[in-house]
Amino acid sequence: MKNKVYIIAIAILAAILLLVSIFFILHANKLKSRISQSVNMIQKVESELSRAREEKESMAKSNEKLQSDSVSYLAINSKLTSEKDEIDKKLQGAQKIIETKEANLQRVQQRLTDIEKRVNAEKKEQDEKLAKEKKALEKKVIKTAVAIKNERGVYHYNLGVAYAQAKLYGEAIEEYEKSIKFDPDNADTYYNLGVLYETVEADTEKAIANYRRYLELNPAPEDIDEIRGRIKRLGG
Q1: How many Cα atoms within 13 Å fall on the side-chain side of residue 46?
Q2: What is the average pLDDT value for the chain, to the nearest integer?
Q3: Contact, 236 vs 212, CB < 8 A?
Q4: Which of 12, 79, 125, 191 would disulfide-bridge 214, Cβ 3.0–4.6 Å?
């Protein structure tokens, strides 16, 4: 009986020990897992710290460069400002020169415009004068030409009369025809031709034509009845 109790006690103790061992093993694994996580976290933190230090160093270098660049920029800016002021002065001087030249150009252009106006006015006056002289000369030329033409007509008419009086009838007809070319409105020329064509040439058609032209130019002559009678007698 005692042995049985003893065995049970040992079994219970063994079970307790087993449970404790299991607990510690589980706890140890859990702790080991936490330790592993902590180590990973520490490594990650150290990595972050390392990167932060690198960034800090980089920023420090960038800051130093910025400071150096700022100093350089200030120096350059100062130089540029000085150069800009000098350029501005030169530009102002050039602007004044340009303005002076533009003013001179405007004065020259105004003078040129005035000269052109004066020349145009003189040219217009001269053109008008020349146009009047030309017109007067043209009238004189036309008048002279008409006068010469009439004179030639009269000349050939008188020559025809002279030939007719000399009984040179062929020459008379020729001169009367020439007279008509220069003075086609002389009624007496057509009358004389009508008489010659009727009495000398016996050309009734030409005689009638010249008599009719005579009456067209002189509708109411004193011898109108005689002329009409001649036309009728010739068959006109």
Answers
A1: 6
A2: 83
A3: yes
A4: 191
> Which pTM was predicted?
0.46
Classify the phi-psi angles of 202: left when phi > 0, otherwise alpha if psi is within -120 to 50, otherwise beta: left
Sequence letter at residue 11: A
Which two tokens mark 104?
Answer: 């001179």
What's the CA angle centered on 17, arms 16 and 19, to 5 degrees?
A: 65
Closest CA to 155 of 189, 106, 190: 189
The Cα–Cα gap between 156 and 173 comes to 10
pLDDT single digits (tens) 12-31: 878 888 887 787 777 767 77
The residue assigned the tokens 């920023």 is: 59
The span from the CA of 230 to the CA of 236, in Å, is: 9
Record the tokens describing residue 128, joined without a space. 């008008």
- Tokens representing 140 are 């004189």
How crowded is residue 190: how many other Cβ atoms within 10 Å of its Cβ?
24
Q: Where are the alpha helices (DSSP H) in 166-186?
A: 169-182
* Phi (first) and psi of residue 166, to 5 degrees: -85, 5
Measured between its terminal Cα atoms, the distance across the chain in Å is 199
**The token pair that represents 36 in the structure block:** 């592993």
Q: Taking a C-beta distance cutoff of 8 angstroms, is the pair 194, 214 a contact?
A: yes
pLDDT-based confidence at 74, cuts 50/70/90?
Answer: low
Each residue's pLDDT tens digit, 156-199: 999 999 999 999 999 999 999 999 999 999 999 999 999 999 99
